[in-house]
Design brief:
The chain is α+β, with helices and mostly antiparallel strands and 239 residues long. Helices cover 19% and strands 29% of the residues. It has 6 helices and 17 strands. The structure holds uracil.
Length: 239
């Protein structure tokens, strides 16, 4: 149970003192009945509180978290085909959060979630050029001269041009490990780019998104962002 003046201030309607005044002026109703004492307690889960006849609800708290997505989970809150989704991994939260952008079913790694719509919109908009770093195992021995193709830009199936800065980390007999830095974020961009240069992706992991990593977070687990990380995200997209 919550005191009505505290509830009104949580809703951003008034300071607690001013809330007392609204009550004594008879402007607050709970379930349709005018209340008269500022100490009146309500049950937030079921009582309907109105100011001057308008229903009021608490301002939604913004939350931000990072999931270390394992392969085999769809980046969606529900799946019509009944497959496992990332929402199955992000549980026990009071607010509903949404994934920022997407990772393919078989892609692993850093996936941000929030209920901050404006930040999410900007982080995924190509205009803001947010940096994403991927590590890919690709088929075949990649030659160094292939690396120069990526920053020049490669035509994607959707007609756009994809650009990446690529480093060759390791060359094995049958595959190579590369890291790619991208700033646009087109659908299946890494897979299309690698295929276009003759080295299809075998395994893909996103190591970081806008500088945020999953270091220390086990696959399938998540953590809240720190205040510093949230401030930095806002700064990167001019919020
Ligand atoms: N690029 C891809 O091809 N797949 C992803 O999941 C992310 C980026």
């Amino acid at each position: 149970m919550t005191r009505i003046n505290k509830y009104l201030s949580q809703c951003g309607v008034a300071s607690r003192r001013h809330a007392d005044k609204l009550v004594t002026e008879g402007r607050i109703t709970v379930n349709g009945a005018i209340i008269e004492t500022p100490g009146f307690k309500i049950d937030e889960s079921k009582d309907e509180v109105c100011l001057d006849g308008q229903v009021i609800t608490p301002a939604e708290k913004k939350i931000y978290l990072i999931l270390n997505k394992p392969a085999g989970y769809v980046t969606s809150l529900t799946d019509p085909q009944g497959r496992k989704t990332v929402a199955d991994l992000v549980t026990d939260l009071e607010q509903r959060v949404y994934p920022v952008g997407r990772l393919d079913l078989d892609t692993e790694g850093t996936l941000l979630f929030t209920n901050d719509g404006e930040l999410a919109h900007r982080l995924t908009h190509p205009k803001y050029g947010v940096k994403k770093i991927y590590r890919a195992r690709v088929k075949g021995r990649m030659r160094r001269d292939k690396l120069v193709l990526f920053p020049k830009g490669i035509k994607l199936p959707d007609g756009n041009i994809g650009r990446a800065i690529v480093n060759l980390e390791k060359i094995n007999d049958e595959d190579s490990i590369i890291t790619l830095e991208l700033t646009e974020g087109r659908k299946r961009e890494v897979k299309h780019l690698c295929k276009a240069v003759g080295h299809p992706v075998i395994k893909l992991v996103r190591d970081s998104f806008a500088g945020i990593t999953c270091d220390g977070v086990a696959p399938g687990k998540w953590r809240f962002l720190s205040a510093e990380e949230i401030a930095d995200l806002n700064y990167q997209v001019k919020l």
